[in-house]
Amino acid sequence: xxxxxxxxxxxxxxxxxxxxxxxxxxxxxxxxxxxxxxxxxxxxxxxxxxxxxxxxxxxxxxxxxxxxxxxxxxxxxxxxxxxxxxxxxxxxxxxxxxxxxxxxxxxxxxxxxxxxxxxxxxxxxxxxxxxxxxxxxxxxxxxxxxxxxxxxxxxxxxxxxxxxxxxxxxxxxxxxxxxxxxxxxxxxxxxxxxxxxxxxxxxxxxxxxxxxxxxxxxxxxxxxxxxxxxxxxxxxxxxxxxxxxxxxxxxxxxxxxxxxxxxxxxxxxxxxxxxxxxxxxxxxxxxxxxxxxxxxxxxxxxxxxxxxxxxxxxxxxxxxxxxxxxxxxxxxxxxxxxxxxxxxxxxxxxxxxxxxxxxxxxxxxxxxxxxxxxxxxxxxxxxxxxxxxxxxxxxxxxxxxxxxxxxxxxxxxxxxxxxxxxxxxxxxxxxxxxxxxxxxxxxxxxxxxxxxxxxxxxxxxxxxxxxxxxxxxxxxxxxxxxxxxxxxxxxxxxxxxxxxxxxxxxxxxxxxxxxxxxxxxxxxxxxxxxxxxxxxxxxxxxxxxxxxxxxxxxxxxxxxxxxxxxxxxxxxxxxxxxxxxxxxxxxxxxxxxxxxxxxxxxxxxxxxxxxxxxxxxxxxxxxxxxxxxxxxxxxxxxxxxxxxxxxxxxxxxxxxxxxxxxxxxxxxxxxxxxxxxxxxxxxxxxxxxxxxxxxxxxxxxxxxxxxxxxxxxxxxxxxxxxxxxxxxxxxxxxxxxxxxxxxxxxxxxxxxxxxxxxxxxxxxxxxxxxxxxxxxxxxxxxxxxxx
Amino acid sequence: xxxxxxxxxxxxxxxxxxxxxxxxxxxxxxxxxxxxxxxxxxxxxxxxxxxxxxxxxxxxxxxxxxxxxxxxxxxxxxxxxxxxxxxxxxxxxxxxxxxxxxxxxxxxxxxxxxxxxxxxxxxxxxxxxxxxxxxxxxxxxxxxxxxxxxxxxxxxxxxxxxxxxxxxxxxxxxxxxxxxxxxxxxxxxxxxxxxxxxxxxxxxxxxxxxxxxxxxxxxxxxxxxxxxxxxxxxxxxxxxxxxxxxxxxxxxxxxxxxxxxxxx
Lengths: 787, 264
What we know:
The structure holds two protein chains of two kinds. By secondary structure, chain A is of the alpha/beta class. Chain A is built from 31 helices and 16 strands. In chain A, strands 3-4-5-14-13 form a five-stranded mixed sheet. Chain A has a three-stranded parallel sheet with strand order 8-11-12. The longest helix of chain A is centred in the N-terminal third of the chain and has 35 residues, at 191-225. The longest helix of chain B has 14 residues, at 103-116. Chain B has a single domain (2-262), classed as TIM Barrel, CATH 3.20.20. The two termini of chain B are 32 Å apart. Chain B has ten helices and eleven strands. By secondary structure, chain B is α/β, with parallel strands linked by helices. Chain B has helices at residues 71-79, 82-88, 103-116, 130-136, 152-159, 164-175, 194-205, 223-228, 234-237, 243-254; strands at 2-12, 20-25, 46-54, 57-65, 67-70, 91-95, 119-124, 142-146, 179-186, 210-217, 260-262. In chain B, strands 5-1-2-6-7-8-9-10-11 form a nine-stranded mixed sheet. Chain B is globular, with a radius of gyration of 18 Å. The chains are: A alpha/beta, B alpha/beta. At the A-B interface, helix 25, helix 28 and helix 29 of A face strand 1, strand 4 and helix 2 of B.
């Protein structure tokens, strides 16, 4: 890392997290003027976007090579009052909370109190959502049966495809104009809607070009004032680049990075979509520019690395927008989930690892930033050298990169009906979500608390924490004569609650389609222009809606416990068990001991327990997969938690596996923390028993001590471990490499470990920014000591 | 066919090439004073009292060191990780205790592994009936052969048996053309003396088939296991072996062998 990058990195790490009222203020004045009323919703949104970009502060940081900030300065985060309006009370919480806080100054509060709150109160997207949900939805949501992703953030969950790097806004506008000219008002009843969407896309593409031109002229001004001739020349070049891209397609390595960065900023300024945005298969997209530059002598390896590092810092400057309430609990992190994909295969199925892949891996290792997140796609065609290089970085202990199975991802996408080319252009984003990059809107709609459903089943439809009857009457559990009776009742509740969830999703999807079009995202997502349909209305080539199951490991252990102790060996009756759960095992300590220590657990390759994971997986899959969504998408499942297993644990009472009320649940498809005692091959064998190919992603977390990565022999064994899991169709595995002692010390002395990054669940985070429960959990995760 | 084992450990990465499963036989004819697997010494299953802690309370439960198992049961456990062996070039290691102390059971397991195409290693102290050993040699791909003390008097003093039979068996394995990894425990003032190390080096210098020498520095992680069986002594009195000394000993062996490692 050269001195410039070191300085930029330090500034990025040290910049305080704060909120900026600029965007909220601009959006409010745009809508207050009232002029927008004469336009369709889509055009209104596009004009609003253009208004923001024309008026927001231009920020160019000293010494930087890639320009563009979403806020007025690094880590100054805008708000999106049209989606979710923060009250003064929310702002106080955001300002003062211990974890993931943002400073809110008086000026911000004044703007909010004076204009933003009075204008948006009662008319935000969030108000529309809660106002449109049924009572049973609201009750289930409040009880913590599921969460709702779109109540504070817009749908996004998508990744740039290869065309984003091949086209400029002028090219897109040409396509839009052509689509407009083909509209047939005589025969197409939707011609008007299409025209409005296309007009909006055209405005958005234009707005992004103009925004870059603003940067170009500001940078040129700086260049003229600059005393250091070298920097003046550098600025002059940057100004030329901002004039060229994103208006036109990039033609150099530097232009490609700057081009993407403006598009990224556009997407996350237009709305606050989940997972921000993502350049996807970066080594593949940039390789032609890299090759051309190196071969023609206009680019050196060192310069390419410096530009990539400058690009990395831009991501780190952009934390996730502030979240509150349940949304903050399910996703308690500054990370905004950009997940850069490396490796995998090319469009023709050949090995995609190239020289640039290794250079980017060097960048990841040197930068050690939580953002952007990084992963390697491992196909059977990729060389071991690539996997070993990635493991070298894992060994340094900041949780990156994680490992994904390209061959499984392609099968998943093909199974969902994608073409082979689109499947090979895909990958995983966010935490672990499978998607066809550039062609698919694969929207995560909310986490689903599988264990809460069992708790409600054990209480015949009532939530024991409130006494409210929120489920169906599935039978008095004391009357169940066999395990099958119990499982039928569970499945019955599961179908009921997944039904409520997808029913709510269908309304929310229409609300976004009607009120919150995303014209810029539509420009760059394939088929939106061709169809004349917005991203949020099903304009993408493929539209998938996910419900994310949480707590598979805990639920498996709970069912195994009921099967063994209540029905099989009859060591405890159902009524006694329920009594013990209600008492949170108080005065039932011996029972709890037997449940914890003498009952089969998921993750030990023991079919007694593992068969229930397969059973639950199939039930969850059958309840959701294949249902149609209101804008033409298809519902599917994946299994990942972000930090939601902690929130869901906090609203779920004591359970038959011996877990106490409020404790966190298992995460992803990982075993319950500490329950896997047979080592990593057993965990992998268990995890591979569910059919990953029928999901849109699963998350498996494994903690190892650094010794496992110490020499080439042990590293080779780790490569084999990954390869074996992938041969068994496993989707994803990530490694946390820090010994428990270090973590405990970090918890006690946070000041000494400000840079300690750990793998949480599909993303990495600063250990100090994690809540105490999560810190304890990470310390507890089984360390596989290979004696 | 039945045997007694005290553990089957998966993802064992220090007992031969690749990812392996190690099957620990119960019962050993030696009584090395530094032994870190005391539960492997007696031949019959033992019970002991274990304490499980939960919420500050202690629950006493019976722990089992060793159980009777059939070859079917052991094979089922071994075969669970076949894909890992295939991907990593690993396999199964029979260890103990002393696997050759149950030669018929061992031979049956080895034979079945051979049929299943699983790479086999035998981790042995070498104290065995020579004819029984010869029967299992063709079924074994790799021997992890422990060498402790070069001189018989010392051997009898610290392991309770003579090393004559051990050295003869080592020659038998070597002349059969098998791959051998020699494992030498480093115990302060007992096995790490200059005379003993030179003696051991001389012994193995004359043999063929030695692909690696592994030095295993003494560690006292087995203290709690000794306490569990109501025993104490060496493990508590002696400190963990000094690694810098081990490195010097490694250099000494590197003069004769290209591949010498510390810590297995």
